[in-house]
Write a structure and sequence with these properties.
InterPro entries: DUF2093 (IPR018661). This is DUF2093 domain-containing protein. It holds the Pfam family DUF2093. 12% of the residues lie in helices and 31% in strands. It is mainly β. It has one domain.
């Protein structure tokens, strides 16, 4: 069975205002919860840590050391 890139997570490079797709995919996994985040829904990440977050709450928990 062939898998398309949509079935696998994307690899991104996170910048301060946007991200760059390094490997095509449809989603990434939240660094705190592990839940998949569709790229079109991705709003929170850390350029310093190079991690995506599913919500502002997840980002806050990670960046304050609560995660």
């Amino acid at each position: 069975m062939l898998m398309s890139s949509r079935d696998e997570p994307a690899k991104l490079q996170y910048g301060p205002n946007d991200f760059r797709v390094l490997r095509a995919g449809r989603f990434v996994h939240c660094a705190v919860s592990g839940e998949p985040i569709l790229l079109e829904d991705l709003r929170y990440w850390s350029a310093e840590l190079q991690e995506p977050y599913a919500s502002a709450e997840h980002a806050t928990r990670r960046l304050t050391g609560e995660a």
